[in-house]
């Protein structure tokens, strides 16, 4: 498989995983898949998540320090935030238009709708309670939550990425403001750390086709009943159509406008990261691969990628904005 491009290897792993999962479901080999195949997918996913925090720390500190000027940092930060808000607003608009045109709920029978309500009632109740709790908080609570009281506690879980990013940017600003002879050893350490982590990404990606194979085989075996699956096809089709519009029309248009490059160059260079995101449904797990692709295959400057990508993996959730 090494002679194939990485994105073709991942696609091949997806197809084989779906095929094995379908055969296993038909032959009632559920326990074999969950006991002997799924763990390899979990290991692959854990390896990607394992290096997410070290990658954010090393790359973002290096990215901020390389700017060497607070004004450059604020300019890039405001520009990045503006682009993220714009793309998220477009994603929400596309989702609203798509769902109002297709109206996927009309294809679900009352019996299946009741079955879905019974199956996911607990999840819905928990989300409603969380939303009510959030609504009762202070308007500035998100700002409070962004500042950690213990950076090591924040770094112990991938769910507190925004707190880690805040600390790392603050740390990077401190590096910029101290004399160069004092900051040079620290910057050199994190530069070396960043190189090590990126090499770890390369090693992990050697197992990507096999990890994706295991994830998809388990996904098919653990999928809901065929009746529920068929009922959700309309919703799934609407979401996929909206995402396809974002990936193949909206983003390439931005690439053409801002870089004057061929969008196919962007799509081909970023394909492994897109496929991995589709396979894992995890921004944290995909971040290391995304950074490797934009720096080594799309020609993005390392200081820009080191600053923009970790923030984007935390706050720029266009796919989530589209389907929710």
What does this structure look like?
The protein has helices at 6-27, 30-50, 52-67, 70-102, 110-135, 141-146, 151-155, 161-177, 180-205, 208-221, 226-231, 233-259, 263-280, 283-296, 302-315, 318-323. The protein is mostly helical and 324 residues long.
Q: Low-confidence stretches at least 5 residues in length (pLDDT < 50)? A: none
Question: Strand percentage, roughly?
Answer: under 5%
Q: Characterize the quaternary organization of these chains.
A: single chain
What is the number of helices?
16
Give the overall average pLDDT.
Answer: 85
Please write out the topology.
Layout: H1 6-27, H2 30-50, H3 52-67, H4 70-102, H5 110-135, H6 141-146, H7 151-155, H8 161-177, H9 180-205, H10 208-221, H11 226-231, H12 233-259, H13 263-280, H14 283-296, H15 302-315, H16 318-323
Helix pairs in contact: 1-10, 1-13, 2-10, 2-14, 3-8, 3-9, 3-15, 4-12, 4-15, 12-13, 13-14, 14-15
